[in-house]
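Retro notes (design track)

What went well: tokenization of the new backbones is finally stable.
What didn't: we kept losing track of which sequence belonged to which structure.
Fix going forward: every design gets posted as structure first, then sequence, in one message. First example under the new rule, 138 residues:
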């Protein structure tokens, strides 16, 4: 049992060094500072080829549910409630597993770039996701 706890502490220490940033998937990739590039939208971005996206992975499982996304509609007045509902989705067993897989995929990279197609990431799910991942990584 002690070995498992020590292993968990080591994993948390390694993850704690992870820097998380958010960018629009339509922006030019920056190999020097992007680290691991992961698309975290449920739907593939319009008009973008896989080559242009230059992704390391697509983790659509961590995106908000279709129902929540439709309810929110990127209405700034609904952002606080959206964030609360999205955090509740991330706290489910499925959400915990998906965020754990995302952190594992980025372990050792130093930088995790969450990519999204939303026009204003400051009121998008990636802002909430980044905050949650930072809390879980550290």
């Amino acid at each position: 049992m002690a070995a498992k706890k020590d292993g968990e502490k080591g994993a948390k220490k390694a993850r704690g060094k992870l820097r998380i940033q958010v960018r629009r998937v339509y922006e030019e990739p920056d190999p020097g500072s992007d680290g691991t590039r992961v698309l975290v939208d449920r739907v593939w971005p319009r008009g973008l080829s896989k080559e242009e996206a230059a992704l390391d992975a697509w983790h659509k499982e961590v995106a908000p549910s279709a129902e929540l996304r439709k309810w929110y509609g990127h209405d700034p007045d609904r952002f606080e409630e959206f964030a609360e509902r999205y955090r509740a989705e991330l706290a489910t067993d499925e959400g915990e597993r998906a965020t754990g897989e995302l952190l594992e995929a980025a372990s050792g990279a130093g930088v995790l770039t969450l990519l999204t197609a939303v026009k204003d990431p400051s009121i998008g799910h990636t802002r909430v996701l980044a905050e949650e991942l930072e809390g879980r990584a550290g």
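Added context from the reviewer: The CA atoms of residues 34 and 113 lie 6 Å apart.
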